[in-house]
Write a structure and sequence with these properties.
Layout lengths: L10 H6 L13 E7 L3 H13 L5 E4 L15 E3 L5 H6 L4 H24 L11 E4 L4 H15 L7 E4 L1 H7 L8 E4 L2 E3 L2 H14 L3 E3 L4 E5 L2 E4 L2 E10 L16 E10 L4 H7 L6 E3 L6 E5 L5 E6 L18 H12 L8 E11 L6 E5 L4 E5 L8 H13 L24 H23 L4 H10 L2
Parallel strand pairs: 1-2, 1-11, 2-8, 4-13, 11-18
Antiparallel strand pairs: 3-7, 4-6, 5-6, 9-10, 10-11, 12-15, 12-16, 14-15, 17-18
Helix pairs in contact: 2-7, 2-10, 11-12
The structure holds flavin-adenine dinucleotide.
């Protein structure tokens, strides 16, 4: 892949059979709503704005091609969950708002399924739920306690269910299995199909997408791009991990890498042995998050979070010989040893955005006309849809149940300047990795390192 390629390196773009090229249309002199960023956040916002007010002139500014960022490269878990919700539920003072948010996140998985069906976006949506495997005996009690707490809050067996080891084996047959939490509100998707399908849909609705048009700065009433300036009544930032590319936003969101691999298609006999017949997504209790899904064409796609580069550097794509991929392949084969001989066909990665307070934010200021949504900490496939609907209501000045949800105006502080940022992330990663190592190898809870990790990441 050369520097002028607009392929984001993922298997998902290959599966779509596209070699996307930006087709920069002429810049308009003005637009009613300018959206910066052509990923899920930007495109869902354009979608709901246009559906609500077809006469509104909406323009999406995309530095590369629609879906070039995390939206076109992720693990494809469309999950009714978001970072930061657990702490809202744990605190009696914020519990009712946390419950409203959690229910809205559950509904969001249905909403993505509903709209993709209505708009004929064939994103391989399969609502198999997700399995969080207990890979050590001590985790059983922890998982069961968690489920009891969730049920005490009013969630049902349908929402979160404990599966014992035998039942779990019928869903996913792996050796390190002591049972699993099955969370129903999750669908596996082909992420690039969702984002490219959304781009086609909003274009059909009359939205202009200016690909190949990097925005350099945003100020009230004006978007500065590498190709000139555009006047805009309202300007919405949807640049997630790439936000540092905008003037004045170097410390707004931290770009953290996540890296993925995918196997060649597995023979049916092997799938019979492994399972995932409902295309359940799966992971375990690791703090250095891992995630897997069975693709519609019978591969196993698997990834893990991996690192930060000094100065919030973001590489367009990652070379397939990046050594982190070997670690991801080892982790995958350690978890699913049946894959030992199955070739890996693709290796790629991307960046996700982390706010300083570790939870998403949606903000719109009526006076300046500026707004943004993001900070999903790597859990943005469904969350971006919810955030986009919240942003739409804020922009259209509609007071709704969505605008009362906790993400609204929950603005994060800025990250520390370098080298503190880099040192801090390294320390958090080392602490998380230490906690994981103790739990996986000594098979006991890591109270000290695990507790420290939890405190540092909210
Ligand atoms: C490898 C990986 C795996 C992941 N797995 C999952 C998962 O399984 N489930 C889940 O929920 N989440 C997952 N995530 C996170 C999820 O993909 C993101 O949270 C989500 O896609 C964010 O969407 P977005 O539209 O906000 O940002 P993005 O998709 O990153 O879109 C931002 C867009 O803005 C454009 N842009 C940037 N700067 C500018 C500029 N200056 N001017 C114009 N345009 C600009 C970029 O080119 C990009 O297209 C994963 C992320 C990665 C990287």
């Amino acid at each position: 892949m050369n520097a002028s390629s607009h392929h984001n390196g993922s298997f998902w773009f290959d599966e779509l059979g596209i070699d996307p090229q930006p087709d920069p249309e002429p810049l308009p002199a003005r637009t009613d709503v300018a959206i910066v960023g052509g990923g899920y956040t930007g495109l869902w916002t354009a979608y709901y704005l246009k559906r609500a007010e077809p006469g509104l002139d909406v323009t999406v500014f995309e530095a590369d091609v629609a879906g070039f960022g995390a939206s076109g490269r992720n693990g494809g878990w469309c999950m009714g969950a978001a970072w930061g919700t657990e702490s809202l539920l744990a605190n009696p003072e914020t519990r009712s708002r946390g419950l409203a948010l959690q229910r809205a996140l559950f509904d969001t998985v249905d909403e993505v399924g509903r709209v993709t069906q209505a708009e004929n976006i064939d994103c391989h949506f399969a609502r198999g739920g997700t399995l969080r495997i207990a890979t050590a005996p001590f985790m059983v009690e922890r998982h069961r306690r968690e489920i009891d707490e969730l049920h005490a809050l009013g969630f049902t067996e349908h929402d979160f269910r404990w599966l014992d080891a035998d039942t779990t084996r019928t869903r996913l047959n792996v050796p390190r299995n002591h049972g699993a939490i099955h969370a129903a509100h999750c669908a596996a998707i082909q992420p690039a199909r969702l984002v490219r399908g959304l781009a086609d849909t909003v274009r059909r609705l009359g939205v202009t997408i200016l690909e190949g048009t990097p925005v350099t700065a945003i100020r009230p009433g004006r978007v500065d791009t590498a190709r000139g300036a555009v006047a805009a009544g309202r300007i919405l930032r949807a640049t997630e991990a790439y936000t540092a590319s905008l003037t004045g936003h170097r410390r707004t969101l931290l770009p953290i890498y996540s890296k993925m691999v995918v196997t060649a298609p597995l023979p049916d006999a092997l799938w019979q042995e492994i399972g995932l017949g409902n295309r359940e997504t799966f992971g375990d209790d690791r703090r250095m998050v891992i995630y897997g899904q069975r693709t519609l064409d019978g591969r196993l796609a698997f990834g893990g979070r991996a690192g930060y580069e000094f100065g919030s550097r973001r590489r367009r794509t990652l070379p397939p010989d990046d050594p982190d991929f070997d670690g991801i392949v080892r982790t995958l084969r350690g978890l699913v040893p049946q894959l030992a001989e199955v070739p890996i066909t693709h290796r790629w990665g991307g960046v996700l955005g982390v706010p300083r307070h570790w939870r998403p934010c949606v903000q719109f200021d009526r006076r300046s006309g500026l707004g943004w949504a993001g900070g999903y900490v790597g859990e943005g496939v469904a969350a971006a849809n919810l955030a986009a609907r919240m942003l739409t209501d804020l922009v259209l000045e509609r007071d709704s149940a969505l605008t009362a949800l906790p993400w609204v105006d929950d603005v994060p502080p800025r990250w520390e300047p370098e080298p503190l940022r880099w040192l801090g992330v390294r320390a958090i990663r080392a602490i998380g990795a230490r906690a994981d190592w103790i739990e996986l190898n000594r098979q006991r809870p890591s109270r000290f390192w695990g507790g420290l990790f939890q405190r540092l990441t909210g």
